[in-house]
Design brief:
The chain is of the alpha+beta class and about 500 residues long. Among the domains are: about 170 residues, FAD/NAD(P)-binding domain; about 80 residues, Rieske Iron-sulfur Protein. It contains 10 helices and 24 strands. The strands form 4 sheets. Strands 3, 4, 5, 6, 11, 12, 13, 14 and 15 form a 9-stranded mixed sheet that branches. Strands 1, 2, 7, 8, 9, 10, 16 and 17 form an 8-stranded mixed sheet that branches. Helix 2 packs parallel to helix 6 and helix 2 runs parallel beside helix 8. The longest helix is centred in the N-terminal third of the chain and has 32 residues. The structure holds flavin-adenine dinucleotide and FE2/S2 (inorganic) cluster.
């Protein structure tokens, strides 16, 4: 993945490699994706004594879990006033309880190797910026209490800059997410589990359920779990109920005396700041600042976003050195605030885990428990709130808003290109060029050579957009991403962008 931005954790961590899959296999459970959701599920299933095969296109932690900032909180991004509205008081309570349980599970998981996983209990502070709406914050505190959380209202968080009031949530945490994955992978391999490198491209429900790989190999399993951040096995069912967002983070050497804790503001999108351990001492800590989210494929101004994050930090925090890291990643935002974890709509033996929002490490961890229970036919109290087939009428306005935006991107098919012709594309840059009826994604590499692919996303046919910060082609409709040679970097697409001289017609746009 050379050329992509990298988090300080990923930059400093060599995870064990995984062998390529070379033969057809039969197993009790097959999990696709070796991020937090896939490995938490596989570890749980291995601990039950079942055989499990994990397939990952690249390797352990190669997806968004390698880019996470791993703050662990049950004070969910969706906020409890909203969760109560969408899921009722009982749903909000189950959401809070399941995330609190996930933090405890991560604590137990990492207790075996505390020095390596750098798990740390800290308080979490949701704060208003100066002049914020104190009434709204108080209402959020009340809703969080009704959901069963312990929350204290304070005049201000212990930050070295002026803010409005805040809520303090005790017993929140942070962790080195890749070390956590390493511990989970060891647990998988310690049981009847195996992890392989393979790209899954086709999925069939049945007895057995089958995954086919890009190399033409097959894995047959009694149950199949798709844990690829966004489901790559279904074209519509989930993708109309969530939107992909890009999110940005930067790191500095921590200024002396900066308090420990998770701090995030009430703006939308929010800013967060905290110090975190990323490597062995000395110099093993960073001060991290993040935010500036936007829907994937809808903005090409990453540099400006990094600069705004830096300005936000420098305006508030004295003694900051130079920025040491900057990176971005993708989160899946569900329209009703909670993940989709459970049986894939319409299937009998295929399960999905997606829609984790900015709470992916806890959502992924609780997915492990929930999916293991479903696979084993056991009841689970959390199943109803995370049911993937749910339709919340109260979330209809957000649902419509997101889908109107998606539909708007189909208009791109009829418009011109970003530039008249490829001569206007600078080295290291990409742009869309119209050639007759076809739109072409053209990238000029640093040596001047052109890389051209069809610009039509292989998921449902939207036109991709250039992401200059990551040098990828990103699809604004459901968040698929492709490298400059058209290979899939992120689903839901599973097929590469077509060659420009491919005689097959471009994928027909299918509004979803
Ligand atoms: C910058 C940033 C900050 C964040 N901060 C936080 C935070 O503070 N706290 C928090 O809880 N969450 C946070 N999140 C969210 C969280 O990181 C993610 O939601 C979570 O890591 C997603 O985990 P996952 O297992 O679902 O997906 P991933 O980690 O993306 O794993 C999916 C895996 O599937 C593999 N895969 C994909 N397609 C295929 C295929 N066709 N065949 C085989 N394998 C395939 C990929 O290679 C990948 O390894 C953050 C995210 C970002 C980007
Ligand atoms: S991701 Fe769905 S059309 Fe591109």
């Amino acid at each position: 993945m050379a050329g992509f931005s990298s988090s300080p954790w990923a930059a400093g961590t060599a995870l064990p490699g995984v062998p390529a899959l070379h033969e057809d296999l039969t197993t009790e459970v097959c999990v696709v994706g070796a991020g937090i959701a896939g490995l938490a599920t596989a570890a749980r299933i291995a601990a039950e004594g079942l055989s499990v095969v994990v397939l990952d296109r690249v390797g352990i932690g190669a997806g968004e879990t390698g880019r996470t900032t791993a703050h662990l909180t049950c004070a969910l991004d969706a906020r409890f006033r909203r969760l109560e509205r969408f899921h009722g008081p009982e749903g909000a309570r189950r959401a809070a309880a399941s995330h609190a349980a996930a933090i405890e599970m991560i604590a137990a998981q990492t207790a075996r190797a505390p020095e390596e996983c750098w798990f740390e209990w800290v308080d979490g502070y949701l704060f208003d910026p100066e002049g914020g709406d104190a009434d709204a914050l108080h209402e959020e505190a009340e809703a969080a209490r009704r959901a069963g959380l312990d929350v204290e209202e304070l005049a201000a968080p212990p930050l070295p800059f002026a803010t409005g009031r805040c809520l303090r949530f005790p017993r929140q945490a942070q962790v080195h997410a890749l070390r956590l994955l390493e511990a989970l992978a060891a647990q998988v391999r310690g049981g009847r589990g195996r992890i392989f490198r393979a790209e899954a491209t086709e999925f069939e429900d049945g007895e057995p359920a089958t995954v086919r790989t890009s190399e033409g190999l097959r894995v047959r399993a009694r149950s199949l779990v798709i844990a690829t951040d966004t489901p790559i096995n279904n074209r519509f069912a989930i993708h109309t109920k969530q939107a992909s967002s890009r999110t940005y983070a930067i790191a500095f050497p921590p200024p002396a005396g900066f308090p420990r804790g998770l701090f995030w503001d009430t703006l939308e999108p929010y800013h967060y700041v905290r110090r975190a351990r990323v490597g062995p001492d000395p110099g093993g800590e960073v001060l991290m600042v993040g935010g500036e989210d936007h829907r994937t494929g809808e903005a090409e101004d990453a540099d400006a976003r990094y600069e705004r994050l830096e300005a936000w930090a420098r305006d508030r925090i004295g003694g900051l050195g130079r920025v040491t890291h900057r990176w971005s990643g993708q989160v899946q935002e569900p329209v009703d605030g909670l993940a989709f974890i459970g049986r894939n709509p319409g299937d009998g033996h295929v399960y999905v885990a997606t829609g984790f929002s900015g709470n992916g490490i806890t959502h992924g961890t609780l997915a492990g428990v929930l999916l293991a229970d479903l696979v084993l036919g056991r009841p689970n109290d959390w199943a109803s709130v995370y049911e993937p087939g749910r339709i919340s009428l109260r979330a209809a306005p957000s649902f419509l808003r997101e889908n109107v935006k998606t539909a708007g991107h189909y208009a791109e098919l009829a418009s011109g290109g970003d530039v008249e012709d490829e001569e206007q594309i600078a080295r290291g840059q990409g742009a869309i060029v119209r050639r007759g009826l076809r739109k072409v994604a053209v990238y000029r590499d640093p040596s001047g050579e052109l890389h051209e692919r069809s610009a039509h996303c292989t998921h449902l046919g939207c036109v991709v957009a250039w992401n200059g910060a990551e040098r990828t082609w990103d699809c604004p409709c459901h968040g698929s991403r492709f490298d400059v040679d058209g290979n899939v970097v992120h689903g839901p697409a599973v097929a590469p962008l077509a060659a420009v001289d491919d005689p097959k017609p471009d994928p027909r746009p299918v509004p979803a």
